[in-house]
Amino acid sequence: MKQKQADQLYTSILFYYDLYPEHIEDFGKIKRVESNHGVFALKETQLTPLQADEFVQAMRMLTKHNYQQVVPIIPTKYGEYVVSTKEHSYYLMPWVEPVEYLGRETQEEKIVAQMAIIHRLTVQTQKISKEKIDKSYQSLLSHWEHRRMELSRFTDRCEAKTYMSPFELSFVTHSYMLDQMAERAQYHLEKWYEACSEKEKYRIALCHSRLTRSHSIFNLENEPLLINFERASLDTPARDIAGFCRFSFPKAMWSEDEVMKWFYRYERHLPLLDEEKHLICAYLNFPEPIVFAVEFYLNQRRSISEIEHVQRLEKRLLAMRKVQRLTQKLIVEQDEEQ
């Protein structure tokens, strides 16, 4: 009965495109639609009207700059790009059949190159007031201080126990390293703040915000077609790059040398400014993934086994140790150069 109701809903949405479905296959948020005019992908989202407008503006910006490596969204017969119901919003794309990637470079190198091209096409240098810089700096600093307090309280709670759980023991063993990394993140943030305060300007570009393998479809030429620009916004390239690195570290087998290739590939298209490198290092050094792992352990401890909690934590700790070495290579400090 539920499937029949769902099919009726999708049919009513596809009417806006003059499409009559012959078969609908459910892939979670993506529905594969075989219709009288070909095969399409119907994407189900939770976009608010404002987010939907920003999403459409991002896609239009890519079109304006003649950017080709994106799966386009198709307008309705009324010229709208997003169709909303009471519960969800939907948009339509041509169905792209994924093929096996056979390229010599890693998929991440290809994806980060496309990120860099988008940034280069849309980059703008904007003036920024001292007050605005101060506000951005203090906001992020305050957030980090709150997160550090959460980790500190969890450390105290663990150390007060006679017997710690395996998760707690693993966390406490690394608590000093995590605190040092938080300090390092603050150092890089201060460097970014000093540079922006001196220049009173910074760069923004169209940022995907969640670019990963799962938001890319590789074609027969081993080139990625990007999807899911739902959270795209004009922001500093540093945030986009840091997010990409964090999500993609596991694909690099935790090798900082492999990740450095991503930066070399990115800078072929858009060289990074020193302050942007510092901001990337700030984002990467702060142990936010560990905070998430601790929160998950405290709030959903019984959802998975203790060993699985430990494995999730250990993976994140391994990534943080790699980040330490990566950021040392990304920014060669002045005293090391002299």
TrEMBL record:
Where the record annotates domain Aminoglycoside phosphotransferase, the positions are 39-268
Record keywords? Capsid protein, Virion
Q: Which InterPro entries match?
A: Aminoglycoside_PTrfase, CotS-like, Kinase-like_dom_sf, Spore_coat_YsxE
Any one GO CC term of this protein is: endospore-forming forespore
**Entry-linked Gene3D superfamilies:** 3.90.1200.10, Phosphorylase Kinase, domain 1 (3.30.200.20)
- Give the protein's recorded name: Spore coat protein YsxE
Species of provenance = Alkalihalobacillus trypoxylicola
